[in-house]
Amino acid sequence: MIYKRSSALFAEASAVIPGGVNSPVRAFKAVGGEPIFVKEAKGAYLYDEDGNRLIDYIASWGPMILGHAYEPVISAVVEKAKKGTSFGIPTEIETQIARLAVSMVPNIDKIRFVNSGTEACMSAVRLARGFTKREKIIKFAGCYHGHSDAFLIQAGSGAVTFGSPNSPGVTQGTAKDTLLARYNDLENVEQIVKANKDEIAAIIIEPVAGNMGCILPADGFLEGLRSICDREGILLIFDEVMTGFRMARGGAQELLNINADIVTFGKVIGGGLPVGAFAARDEIMNYLAPVGPVYQAGTLSGNPLAMAAGLAMLTTLNDQPEIFSNLEEKTAYLHEGIEKVLSNTTLDYQINRLGSMISVHFTDTPVVDFETAAKGNNDTFKKFFHGMLAEGIYLPPSAFESWFLNDALSYADLDKTIEAIEKTVKKL
Ligand SMILES: *Cc1c(COP(=O)(O)O)cnc(C)c1O
Q1: Hey, which pathway is this one from (predicted)?
Q2: Which of 48, 177, 239, 413 is catalytic?
Q3: Which of 53, 72, 62 is nearest to 25 (CA)?
Q4: In this structure, what CATH number is given to the domain that contains residue 12?
Q5: Which residue among 94, 138, 247, 395 is least crowded, i.e. fewest CB within 10 A of its CB?
Q6: CA 204 to ligand 1 centroid distance, Å
């Protein structure tokens, strides 16, 4: 494939945008080489600036669950745009999407819309702290909850359970309130909770992790967190920015049959426009301004274009729940195909999948947390990624990201992908 124009555009971008991108993972740092620039996309396909067609497995990192340029979403946005793009005054469509979201998701009474998943998680933590009048939170190594300070924390040294900043600019003061636990390790959580008795406001978790590849919660793990939270007066926050409206109509809460206290959304809920949201039962949500004391606001929150896109998206998913089982079947088909190909090689590999999220890790150890995800052979992944790109398959440009299937993918696309994997791994 030729990437001449992408390469020129990347050079131009790099002169005026740090690293040429507005979000780091796009820059291909984890896989080497230069990013491609997209010109347009339709259904399951991306078309780049050099005229290459690629089968897309990132779906804008999740939102495009129905494929790109999905007609009902596009026309809803176009029609709305003609009537003005922002008012800073209430609009009826905000209630319409809120009502629909509340009817789809278990265990929530009210929802507040923001502009990104980052904002949703940041606000959910503030709300949890305000509600419980406690300051610390527990997060899990390898889970991503956006780029706000409280989440950019890595494991502290030795026996200390509190984290240290993993980005310059995050203060020690912030880091000391974020405690880091191992995913799928309930005993570890128990220890941390014990050492910080009555100080923990919330445990925040991706109920199915998607930011260290796809990692499934072990049997009993989320149930265990639920009972620790109940016992200790801690709020359980499910970060469903990835899994919400993707795993099922009601997200991971529904699929895994566990209730969280606060749920955060992003990605699918905005239909490809910048939207996040957080939701809970009345008792908690009424702590928010203007009803309650916890402040949270946004000039463009509930923006009419974003709400129109989100409403069209959620309406489709609500009316056609078979989309979720179709996606699951397609992902299972891909899983089987990859398994068949890789089992005929000498490569070490693990395939993790739930619903329409799947990831391949080149390691012989089951991938259950950040540590085991980090054992994957990154050299193999890099070659695999570039081999697939050359075959016209766009995978996430990092071994630490889940692949996201979209409903526009046909079985022919999946077969083409499996063939591409066969060709690619032969050269590894
Ligand atoms: C993408 C993501 C976020 C951050 O959302 P942004 O819209 O990028 O700010 C938070 N949590 C999870 C689980 C995510 O996947």
Answers
A1: Porphyrin-containing compound metabolism; protoporphyrin-IX biosynthesis; 5-aminolevulinate from L-glutamyl-tRNA(Glu): step 2/2
A2: 239
A3: 62
A4: 3.90.1150.10
A5: 94
A6: 13
